[in-house]
């Protein structure tokens, strides 16, 4: 497909608008829309939150009568189904009088996929699909994964030394990475639906797992992730920060039937949800955990656990993306805590290999990320 230069320009602007919804639209995708008439932008908007008007509707409202005969640029196929809290967008697009619609990507949701585009074409509108599609798919990769797999997109995040350690033999880890890396991690927490740690991290570090605002990282961010602990035998202390520190989001503990009933009831009286899951090998089934979270509309999660939880997620083939913050520090020693625990593979061929690897400098650290 030959892409017109001005189409790519306006779609790029629409994608930038869509990205403003990061961390706020779940379980909906991020969507941006721009209305252009005679080479001038007359309406622009993005989807702010689930249950609120969609980007196309907002942009067309802003354009008003100027939408007649104009072109609508939208980063995701307009919806046409009724099984949601807001009216479908396709009728509003048709009624607005726009003569052309440019769509970055089809919606992978079976309730929408191709249907919205087909309705627009049946109504006589010119529809172009695929402008800046790779960028649109990258922006909503978590949503696309959730729609297809029914499980949230998993990012494994860790701060580590140059030799791959995340803590000393005594468990000390604050702070391996620099301030700029920690600031970015808090922004990441604000962008996901849940942060998951293992009980070892809670016992060793006693984290609050709240998202805090840069630069000082003292004030709570407006958007908070659900805080989740994988604790197969409910060893968590009732005084742990993750249970007592105030946050706008809830805390969930994933455990097994083997956990003491009295501990479970005590946590529930404290207002904590305890999720009892299947436990092959005596440990919480991470696949079942993600399935439950997906059913609850959680589109993305970040694993901030220790080496054992990291290894368990990787062994279960549940990690989609790895993001490592590497400090220019060498810790050394055979008893330091490595970023990936568990038994080492016997062959290099069995190692986990990252694809589409990117690196960048962030303050004094280097960020290495890639897809699994």
Report on the structure:
The structure is a single chain. With 372 residues, this protein is of the alpha/beta class. It folds into two domains: 5-140, Cytidine Deaminase, domain 2 (3-Layer(aba) Sandwich); 150-230 and 286-371, Dihydrofolate Reductase, subunit A. Helices cover 28% and strands 22% of the residues. The chain has twelve helices and 16 strands. It has helices at residues 5-18, 55-63, 90-96, 115-122, 133-139, 141-149, 179-191, 199-205, 241-244, 261-269, 286-295, 307-315, and strands spanning 32-37, 40-46, 71-74, 100-103, 126-129, 153-160, 165-167, 194-198, 226-230, 251-255, 273-276, 300-303, 321-326, 337-338, 355-362, 365-371. The protein has a nine-stranded mixed beta sheet with strand order 11-10-9-8-12-6-13-16-15. A five-stranded mixed beta sheet has the order 2-1-3-4-5, sandwiched between helices. It has a two-stranded antiparallel sheet with strand order 7-14. The longest helix is centred in the N-terminal third of the chain and has 14 residues, at 5-18. The protein is elongated and about 70 Å long. 42% of the residues are buried. The mean pLDDT is 92.
Which tags fit this structure?
372 residues; alpha/beta; Cytidine Deaminase, domain 2; Dihydrofolate Reductase, subunit A; 2 domains; nine-stranded mixed β-sheet; five-stranded mixed β-sheet; 12 helices; 28% helix; elongated
């Amino acid at each position: 497909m030959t892409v017109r230069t001005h189409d790519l320009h306006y779609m790029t602007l629409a994608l930038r608008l869509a990205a403003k919804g990061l961390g706020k639209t779940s379980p909906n995708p991020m969507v941006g829309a721009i209305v252009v008439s005679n080479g001038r932008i007359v309406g622009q908007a993005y989807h702010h939150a689930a249950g609120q008007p969609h980007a196309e509707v907002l942009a067309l409202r802003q354009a008003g009568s100027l939408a007649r005969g104009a072109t609508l640029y939208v980063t995701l196929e307009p919806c046409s189904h009724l099984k949601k809290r807001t009216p479908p967008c396709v009728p509003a697009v048709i009624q607005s009088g726009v003569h052309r619609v440019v769509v970055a990507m089809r919606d992978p949701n079976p309730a929408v996929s191709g249907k919205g585009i087909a309705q627009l074409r049946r109504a006589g509108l010119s529809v172009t699909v695929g402008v800046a599609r790779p960028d649109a798919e990258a922006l909503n990769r978590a949503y696309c994964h959730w729609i297809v797999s029914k499980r949230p997109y998993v990012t494994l995040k860790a701060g580590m030394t140059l030799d791959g350690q995340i803590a000393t033999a005594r468990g000390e880890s604050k702070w391996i990475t620099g301030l700029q890396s920690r600031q970015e991690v808090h922004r990441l927490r604000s962008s996901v639906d849940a942060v998951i740690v293992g009980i070892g991290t809670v016992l060793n570090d006693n984290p609050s797992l709240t998202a805090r605002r840069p630069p000082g990282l003292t004030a709570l961010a407006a958007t908070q992730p659900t805080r989740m602990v994988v604790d197969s035998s409910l060893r968590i202390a009732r005084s742990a920060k993750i249970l007592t520190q105030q946050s706008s989001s809830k805390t969930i503990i994933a455990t097994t039937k083997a956990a003491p009933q009295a501990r479970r009831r005590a946590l529930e009286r404290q207002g904590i949800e305890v999720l009892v899951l299947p436990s092959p090998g005596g440990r919480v089934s991470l696949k079942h955990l993600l399935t439950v979270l997906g059913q609850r509309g959680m589109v993305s999660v970040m694993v901030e656990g220790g080496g054992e939880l990291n290894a368990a997620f990787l062994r279960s083939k549940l990690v989609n993306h790895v993001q490592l913050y590497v400090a220019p520090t060498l810790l050394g020693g055979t008893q330091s805590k490595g970023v990936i625990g568990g038994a080492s593979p016997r062959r290099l061929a069995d190692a986990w290999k990252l694809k589409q690897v990117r690196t960048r400098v962030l303050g004094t650290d280097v960020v290495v990320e890639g897809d699994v």
